[in-house]
Amino acid sequence: MRQRSTTLRQRSTTMRQRSTTMRQRSTTMRQKIHSPETKIHNTETNIHSPETKIHSPETKIHSLETKIHNPDCVCLQVEDISIQFATEGPEKTREECCPGRPLISFSVRPSVKLRLTNPQPQNGLFSHILSVGEGDTVAKLAARLARENKLINDAGSIELWRYKDVKLGPRQFPVYGKPTSGAVLIEKEAVFHADVDSNSLDISLNGSKYPVGPAVIYIVK
């Protein structure tokens, strides 16, 4: 009987110790949750957070530098540049322009819209409408088309074909297997001439002029 009572006392003591340990753990957890130290650390974190915001513009600057290396992100689509003396410009240019501070003036030259259609099957190359100005060449139009269509990697692989019948040609369905049927290749030496008043385009080649019409065919080799 004495041994049983001793065993029961030991068990009760063990249970009490376990309950005390559990109480201490719960108290410790409550202190961690409600302790002012945690709040102070949270405040310090909030105080240091503006430093992260301060450094964030550097990240934006680096991203901007990365974009600058990509010409498609900052391209102004400037094709022709002419440098003139200030005396040759208008009155505002003569007044504001001074040595070391040139005045840049952007302008859009008169142009005529031209539709470029690709009759090649199963390539994902869609039609595009480009502005054609006086003196444009096949190389310039090919460069604009490659800039508009990201599927074209090489502008030199583009060929332009004009319709023999500028009125009926764009309305006909292309012949399968013969995408350039009823069209004539526009040589790279040809020069486009735009008549804004009549909204028409012509090309000149070796002293001869040929009408272009509202649309042409482009082939990607």
Automatic annotation (TrEMBL):
Residues 1-35 are annotated as: Disordered. InterPro entries: LARS1_ULD. Gene3D superfamilies: 1.20.5.340. Residues 1-30 have a biased composition (Low complexity). Residues 109-220 form the Leucine--tRNA ligase ubiquitin-like domain. This is Leucine--tRNA ligase ubiquitin-like domain-containing protein. It comes from Timema poppense.
